[in-house]
């Protein structure tokens, strides 16, 4: 099979396309022919070495495809099933071994490309809006990078729950996409101070900020929260947040801070099935729109990473073996 391997940490040029021996499923595993793999910031962090993964490794952790063989002891899956998964390293490949415990069925009405595009970011938006800070009617939230892959899904889910949504974006094209997804107000952070603008739109501040940007937005964002508001820091697209004085939370009104990760919100099988089931059902019914920014051949993984890191993309980037 062909795959994208990382043998040294560094930039996108470290993503090397080449042939590897076909894998064979072990006990409790599915062997899946990958139809599409999602490109995510976690892939960038692993490539850079910010998130430590033993070298060498096949990149990617989210994909969808069709089961071609089963390891021993598999129940509930069969050859030919369409499945999707995330959090399993090795997705940038033609074939991947996937623990059955981490795979979910892709229902009729959802394509493999949609499944690969929505599983990780859709479940992220789900736990953010339903659990990390459960939104409901009357809440106001700020969504950074509202036209990104996660942002567009989070805006839709927040509106579905009845919240008022303010989004930040970097271009008018992205502003239009955020509005189309349901954002009530959109702030061009490249043109205006997002904290001042939030205070104009919601004088007391917002109830919650969903921040996947990190370093560039975190500390200033505390000033956009209402007293006892919540900062949900779930990513670091601009770089990790450095050490800070916890008394800042007091000075801004006894704020709450959480740094969640999807893996802790799908740790149990029932949680994984509930979140993925909701997301896939909403996609199949048309309640949730999945925007695919672009699709590239597997061999062009480096270009996909460059586009993601440039923050030029709006929606999901896919690699097609």
- Could you give a short account of the major beta sheet? 7 strands, mixed
Give a count of the beta strands, DSSP E runs of length 2 or more: 16
Q: What CATH architecture label of the largest domain applies? A: Alpha-Beta Complex
Low-confidence stretches: none
Question: Structural class of the helix and strand makeup?
Answer: alpha/beta
The dominant shape is globular
* Average residue-wise pLDDT: 97
Helix content: 25-40%
CATH topology of the largest domain: Quinone Oxidoreductase, Chain A, domain 1
Round the Cα radius of gyration to an integer and report it.
Answer: 20 Å
**Total tally of structural domains:** 2
Number of helices: 10
Give the DSSP E fraction (strand runs of 2 or more residues). 25-35%
Q: What is the distance, rounded to the nearest whole angstrom, between the alpha carbons of the first and last residues?
A: 10 Å
What does this structure look like?
The chain is of the alpha/beta class and 321 residues long. It contains 10 helices and 16 strands. It is 31% helix and 27% strand. Strand 9, helix 3 (149-160) and strand 10 form a beta-alpha-beta unit. The longest helix has 21 residues, at 112-132.
